[in-house]
Design brief:
Distance between the termini: 28 Å
Largest sheet: none
Radius of gyration: 16 Å
Order of helices and strands: HHHHHHH
Shape: globular
Number of strands: 0
Helix content: over 70%
Number of domains: 1
Strand content: under 5%
Number of helices: 7
């Protein structure tokens, strides 16, 4: 299980922390264009897709010594894109519900928060299950670990004022 956490969870944690710092510094501003503002809001940008795919492509090989470099980088880029793709349906639902980008839900707050912290975890776990050939039980455990990591690091980033909201 440790090798799967090293290949899946740790690189995404690092990639997402660096992504939040890039957002906070407003770096790579040319890429900070909404993917589709009416559908997903202003916060889902091309910068997120490019940065997360690139950083994760660089991070996965660091945590997968002995694995072929190109395959590790390809896995990292793929998981970075999947992470971003699986955030889009939740953003779409929130826009349809009248929740502003970056804002929290007034009604069903716990449900929206739970979906917000598990959507990308579900996506990367499903993708990893398919490409890495882990068992269903391992995939469920990885989903729980990914979701818990998302919650813990979101709280940490808010506390450190790197991220604006939980």
């Amino acid at each position: 299980m440790i090798e799967h956490v090293n290949r899946l969870v740790l690189p995404l944690v690092i990639s997402n922390i660096l992504h939040m710092i890039i957002i906070r510094q407003d770096a790579l501003r040319a890429l900070a264009r909404p993917v589709h503002a009416p559908a997903f809001g202003a916060n889902k940008t091309w910068r997120g897709f490019v940065v997360l795919a690139t950083l994760n492509a660089l991070a996965v090989p660091l945590f997968s010594p002995g694995e072929p470099l190109f395959g590790s980088m390809l896995l990292g880029a793929f998981l970075g894109v999947v992470y971003m793709l699986f955030e889009l349906p939740n953003s779409w639902l929130k826009r349809r519900s009248g929740i502003a980008p970056g804002a929290s839900a007034e009604r069903n707050r716990i449900l929206y928060a739970a979906v917000d912290k598990t959507d990308s975890a579900l996506g990367v776990t499903l993708a990893y299950w398919i490409v890495a050939g882990v068992t269903a039980a391992e995939a469920v455990l990885l989903f729980i670990i990914c979701s818990a990591a998302h919650v813990v690091f979101s709280l940490l980033l808010v506390t450190l004022r790197v991220k604006r909201g939980f």
